[in-house]
Automatic annotation (TrEMBL):
Residues 1-95 form the HTH arsR-type domain. CDD domains: HTH_ARSR. It comes from Echinimonas agarilytica. This is Metalloregulator ArsR/SmtB family transcription factor. One of its GO terms (molecular function) is DNA binding. Keywords: DNA-binding, Transcription, Transcription regulation. InterPro entries: ArsR-like_HTH, HTH_ArsR_DNA-bd_dom, Metal_resp_trans_reg, WH-like_DNA-bd_sf, WH_DNA-bd_sf.
Length: 96
């Protein structure tokens, strides 16, 4: 992961509402969570939720899939690990 990708992901996660959404999606695991369930749990207007989901998707932190009429959000656990790895990669290298 390069600096720009990490900065984009951290920027999107730096917004309290997006962080709440992302935590819900991560908690749901690999099967994901319906957008309606996120909206109900967090009491976010649908237009606002859509905006935040788009931001998370643009940072490749989540993906979406449609099953019939239900839209699901699924965490990109690989991207999450890449962000964590980026932050930890050089841990303690300058310690003497």
């Amino acid at each position: 992961m390069n600096l720009e990708q990490a900065a984009k992901a951290l920027k999107e996660l730096g917004h309290p509402t997006r962080l709440q959404i992302f935590k819900k999606v991560v908690k749901a695991g690999h099967s994901g969570i319906a957008v309606g369930a996120i909206q109900e749990a967090l009491s976010i207007p649908s237009s606002t939720l859509s905006h935040h989901i788009s931001s998370l998707a643009s940072a490749q932190l989540i993906s979406q899939r449609r099953e019939s009429r239900t839209l699901y959000c699924v965490a990109s656990f690989e991207q999450l690990q890449d962000v964590i790895g980026f932050l930890q990669d050089e841990c303690c290298q300058d310690e003497h």
